[in-house]
Amino acid sequence: MDSPYLLDLRWMNGQPFIHLGGYSNHRSSPDVVELFEHVAVVAPGSYGLLHVRDDEEPDHENEVRVLRLVRGVVTQHTAALLSPCIPTVEDAFTD
User: 19, 44, 69, 74: which has the fewest Cβ within 10 Å?
Assistant: First the structure.
């Protein structure tokens, strides 16, 4: 994965860990959600959270979504502490 993303795979305490981060202002490839879902398939014992803000996703454009990976299953939830993004995280755009 290239900029604007961070992808780090390393062994810690005898187990592999993936750290993802980044901020893209448009949908682009590679898709971090697809990577997260791939991890669920190839490493079903994995667990973790992926926070995504996609203002181009219909019906979720003003939310931070949390993808939860547990036992090979990815589910989506709204992050109540960060949503709605406007006005919780940022002010509304004005000219």
Answer: 19
